[in-house]
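Render Glycolipid 2-alpha-mannosyltransferase in 3D.
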Amino acid sequence: MFLLLYFILQILTKENAVIVILCRNEEMNQISESIKNFEEIFNKQYNYPYVFLNDNDFTEEFKSKIKSVVSSTVEFGKINYPMWGPPKHINMDKAKENMKSLESQNIIYGGSLSYRNMCRFFSGYFYRHDLVKKYDYYWRIEPGVKFFCKMNYDPFKFLRESKKEYGFVITIREYMQTIPTLWD
């Protein structure tokens, strides 16, 4: 009886939130390990849904593996243009030239168009994706992350109760060489 009441209470008090993951099929093992860890420290208790996004279609093998490690529902989606890729007005010849220059200077992600697409997507498009826009709160997880302590509270509930809209963690300083014209 207690478990049934607990389950009903969890459903009634759960926030309108989702775990958002951008990854590729080839990152299946990394992300499944990250999810196992995340489930153990947090989501087994709260059962928030997952949305997986990719700029290509997910394979059936990927979907099956992910479904086997999550405790809640999961949706898989594709990111299409214009959410993924440079805007049409960008001179791609000049962009490639600049990326090649950054790469020759051994600047992290200097030659990666995919990295730029990801940054652009998370800077203004992810919350507009059809699978994500129905939620009020999002938690982004990346392949390879590890959590080292159990979460004894629901951060989504904390955000709502504290009338906060955004939470973040700072992990590294920006490499100034990657943004030479940002403030010009």
